[in-house]
Amino acid sequence: MGEFELISRYFASSGAKRSDTTIGVGDDGAVLQVRDGYDLVVTTDTMVAGTHFFPDDDPRALGHKLVAVNVSDLAAMGAEPAWLSLALTLPNVDENWLSAFAAGLHETAEYYNCQLIGGDTTRGPLSLTMVAKGIVPRGKAISRSGASVGDYIYVTGTLGDAALGLRLCQGVHQVSKKHQTHILQRFHYPSARVALGQALRNIASSAMDLSDGLYSDIQHIMARSKVGASIDVGKLPLSQALKDSCDPATAIQLALSGGEDYELLFTVPEARRGSLDVLLSPYGIPLSCIGRITGVAGKLELKQAEQQYAYQHQGFTHFS
């Protein structure tokens, strides 16, 4: 099967169709209609076999995850997901693998109302790159640079489950049968907090999604906003599955540095905390206030029961 037949068969005709897409897959470029009064938000994510996923992972899950992690970046900026481009590098043409991968990609794109509008296919080591584009009302995108001293620090959902799922897949940690489905779902099939991100446009002073772990990611907000942060590790939201599967110190380590949670991390000024509770309650997503922004730029302080919490970061970074 050649490159163009591959594109035509698996990626040209399935998935969501948007009325603001004039030309999608099949031409030298896509033609898109961006609404008046809106800004375009663009993000890119790459997943490489052996680094971001196991080569024998379920391709349907890979298709889902590739879309979800990109859409999660849009959600963190308060954007409405709209369009996706895919750069797919394959060592060979495996039709069963492609069929399952495309199914996972298309069903997840349709769930988030995104349309695949183009991309590229090449031969080489297995690598998946996606560019996601979204739209946000002009001037309303949430960045990492707006946090101020005194702001409260929040996270959505629970932390550490995906990292435990990775350990389970690696065979280095045991999880009881009653928790395995939940833990593996969090690892292989993350969810993007799209609706919640849009609701935060007029509430959050800064935001980002948690991909590399809370300990690393909060420092991106600190650097961009030129502030410090104090986090109470006793307030980290931990699932029952994580607490039942780990000792307390390991659970905190996974929540701080495990990564791949794809929850939202955001800050809220004191004056908007009431609005947060009122506007976000219909979404049914747990929110946890875990700390506050401080004035010592670059200083991250961890506490537990008002005492300093000694911690050595063990998270993953490329090229380190």
TrEMBL record:
<feature type="binding site">
    <location>
        <position position="45"/>
    </location>
    <ligand>
        <name>Mg(2+) 1</name>
    </ligand>
</feature>
<dbReference type="InterPro" id="IPR036921">
    <property type="entry name" value="PurM-like_N_sf"/>
</dbReference>
<keyword id="KW-0808">Transferase</keyword>
<comment type="function">
    <text>Catalyzes the ATP-dependent phosphorylation of thiamine-monophosphate (TMP) to form thiamine-pyrophosphate (TPP), the active form of vitamin B1.</text>
</comment>
<feature type="binding site">
    <location>
        <position position="212"/>
    </location>
    <ligand>
        <name>Mg(2+) 5</name>
    </ligand>
</feature>
<dbReference type="GO" id="GO:0009030">
    <property type="term" value="F:thiamine-phosphate kinase activity"/>
</dbReference>
<dbReference type="InterPro" id="IPR010918">
    <property type="entry name" value="PurM-like_C_dom"/>
</dbReference>
<feature type="binding site">
    <location>
        <position position="52"/>
    </location>
    <ligand>
        <name>substrate</name>
    </ligand>
</feature>
<feature type="domain" description="PurM-like C-terminal">
    <location>
        <begin position="149"/>
        <end position="296"/>
    </location>
</feature>
<keyword id="KW-0479">Metal-binding</keyword>
<feature type="binding site">
    <location>
        <position position="73"/>
    </location>
    <ligand>
        <name>Mg(2+) 3</name>
    </ligand>
</feature>
<feature type="binding site">
    <location>
        <position position="43"/>
    </location>
    <ligand>
        <name>Mg(2+) 4</name>
    </ligand>
</feature>
<feature type="binding site">
    <location>
        <position position="316"/>
    </location>
    <ligand>
        <name>substrate</name>
    </ligand>
</feature>
<keyword id="KW-0784">Thiamine biosynthesis</keyword>
<feature type="domain" description="PurM-like N-terminal">
    <location>
        <begin position="26"/>
        <end position="136"/>
    </location>
</feature>
<feature type="binding site">
    <location>
        <position position="28"/>
    </location>
    <ligand>
        <name>Mg(2+) 4</name>
    </ligand>
</feature>
<feature type="binding site">
    <location>
        <position position="260"/>
    </location>
    <ligand>
        <name>substrate</name>
    </ligand>
</feature>
<feature type="binding site">
    <location>
        <position position="73"/>
    </location>
    <ligand>
        <name>Mg(2+) 2</name>
    </ligand>
</feature>
<comment type="similarity">
    <text>Belongs to the thiamine-monophosphate kinase family.</text>
</comment>
<protein>
    <recommendedName>
        <fullName>Thiamine-monophosphate kinase</fullName>
        <ecNumber>2.7.4.16</ecNumber>
    </recommendedName>
</protein>
<feature type="binding site">
    <location>
        <position position="211"/>
    </location>
    <ligand>
        <name>ATP</name>
    </ligand>
</feature>
<dbReference type="InterPro" id="IPR016188">
    <property type="entry name" value="PurM-like_N"/>
</dbReference>
<keyword id="KW-0547">Nucleotide-binding</keyword>
<comment type="pathway">
    <text>Cofactor biosynthesis; thiamine diphosphate biosynthesis; thiamine diphosphate from thiamine phosphate: step 1/1.</text>
</comment>
<dbReference type="Pfam" id="PF02769">
    <property type="entry name" value="AIRS_C"/>
</dbReference>
<feature type="binding site">
    <location>
        <position position="120"/>
    </location>
    <ligand>
        <name>Mg(2+) 1</name>
    </ligand>
</feature>
<feature type="binding site">
    <location>
        <position position="209"/>
    </location>
    <ligand>
        <name>Mg(2+) 3</name>
    </ligand>
</feature>
<keyword id="KW-0418">Kinase</keyword>
<feature type="binding site">
    <location>
        <position position="144"/>
    </location>
    <ligand>
        <name>ATP</name>
    </ligand>
</feature>
<feature type="binding site">
    <location>
        <begin position="119"/>
        <end position="120"/>
    </location>
    <ligand>
        <name>ATP</name>
    </ligand>
</feature>
<feature type="binding site">
    <location>
        <position position="44"/>
    </location>
    <ligand>
        <name>Mg(2+) 1</name>
    </ligand>
</feature>
<dbReference type="InterPro" id="IPR006283">
    <property type="entry name" value="ThiL-like"/>
</dbReference>
<feature type="binding site">
    <location>
        <position position="28"/>
    </location>
    <ligand>
        <name>Mg(2+) 3</name>
    </ligand>
</feature>
<feature type="binding site">
    <location>
        <position position="73"/>
    </location>
    <ligand>
        <name>Mg(2+) 4</name>
    </ligand>
</feature>
<keyword id="KW-0460">Magnesium</keyword>
<keyword id="KW-0067">ATP-binding</keyword>
<dbReference type="Pfam" id="PF00586">
    <property type="entry name" value="AIRS"/>
</dbReference>
<feature type="binding site">
    <location>
        <position position="45"/>
    </location>
    <ligand>
        <name>Mg(2+) 2</name>
    </ligand>
</feature>
<dbReference type="InterPro" id="IPR036676">
    <property type="entry name" value="PurM-like_C_sf"/>
</dbReference>
